[in-house]
Amino acid sequence: MLPLNDVVHLAVTGLAQGCAYGLIALGFVLIYKATEVVNFAHGEFMMLGAFTVLAYSEAFGGSFWPAFVLGCLTIGVVGYLIDAQIMRRIIGQSSASIFILTVAFGFIFRSLAGIIWGWNTLSLDTPFDGQVALGGEFAIATDRLAIIVATILLCVLLYLFFSRTRYGIAMQAASQNQLAAYYMGIPVKRLVSITWAIGAIIAAAAGALLAPVTQIDTTIGLLGIKALAGAIVGGFGSIPGALLGCLLIGIIEPFADYLLPEIKGVSPYIVMLLVLFLRPEGLMKQTFKKKV
User: Fold this and answer.
1) pLDDT tens digits for 102-116?
2) 3-class secondary structure for the chain?
3) Among 63, 73, 171, 193, which lies 20 to 30 A Cα-Cα from 80?
């Protein structure tokens, strides 16, 4: 039986991890819903975001928030250009070709990051130091609390964007039926590129917020695979489902690593396999059927 302190610590750690995975998974699902493309380089957007925020922070003398905003916007521009200049040109190609291209992007991004920033682990100074008391002997690290709060805020902002703004509603229409949206005068190509930009911005934010926990190196983008597993567990076509799956994996992972150190790092994929066997569509089905 685990002591209560350990249970609370592992649960809070898992919740923060799940929120971080959820931020990355949001980008996966947004891009998939808009284009039916699974961007296997999405974790590398997170990695590039962390490095870019670090570069801006050093240029600004350690000021985190201006670096955070500019870093996320920079990676958003990268995401926009990748779709507008490259992905748009291979529309209609086989799924295998698109898969290989996105995997290649991942290798290219990691190599570029290593060439520019080196292959050693770096650290980013953030304002998230210390702990916040939860009452009694329980406390939560500020950096983990920041991840949880940021996830909640971004989810609220995305909900308001997609439900209350013209661009958000147009994106939903385009994801349902691109041809019909085009005939209705909706700039489908531009909206798809903006979707890539939004996904990249969210991933970059996750990378910068995770930096105090994971540190920064060229391999942190591999967390995107765990986020992808969480999205599959929850239901890849559903944003709430993807978040739920990532939270589930995030909470299970630290307990599994603590109780069964032999499978450390593997538990997310075991959970994914179990869910695929028992419920292939994920815990939450897609909230709508795509119209054709």
Assistant:
1) 999 999 999 999 999
2) CCCHHHHHHHHHHHHHHHHHHHHHHHHHHHHHHHHCCCCCCHHHHHHHHHHHHHHHHHHCCCCHHHHHHHHHHHHHHHHHHHHHHCHHHHCCCCHHHHHHHHHHHHHHHHHHHHHHHCCCCECCCCCCCCEEEEECCEEEEHHHHHHHHHHHHHHHHHHHHHHHCHHHHHHHHHHHCHHHHHHCCCCHHHHHHHHHHHHHHHHHHHHHHHHHHHCECCCHHHHHHHHHHHHHHHCCCCHHHHHHHHHHHHHHHHHHHHHCHHHCCCHHHHHHHHHHHHCCCCCCCCCCCCCC
3) 63
Cα 256 from Cα 274, distance rounded (Å): 15
Residue 14, domain member (yes or no): yes
The model's confidence at residue 134, banded by pLDDT at 50, 70 and 90, is low
Pair 46, 223: CB distance under 8 Å: yes
Question: What is the length of the chain?
Answer: 292
- The whole-model pTM stands at 0.90
Q: List the domain range (segments joined by +) for residue 180.
A: 4-222
Q: How many domains does one find in the chain?
A: 1
pLDDT tens sequence across 187-220: 888 888 999 999 999 999 999 999 888 889 999 9
Task: Classify residue 237: in a domain, yes or no.
Answer: no
Mean pLDDT across the stretch 88-100?
84
CB 238 within 8 Å of CB 29:
yes
- Judge whether residue 173 has pLDDT over 90: no
- Token pair recorded at residue 33: 């819903």
* Tens of pLDDT, residues 18-29: 999 999 999 888
| Residue 267 covered by a domain | no
- Is residue 265 a part of any domain in this protein? no
pLDDT of residue 286: 63
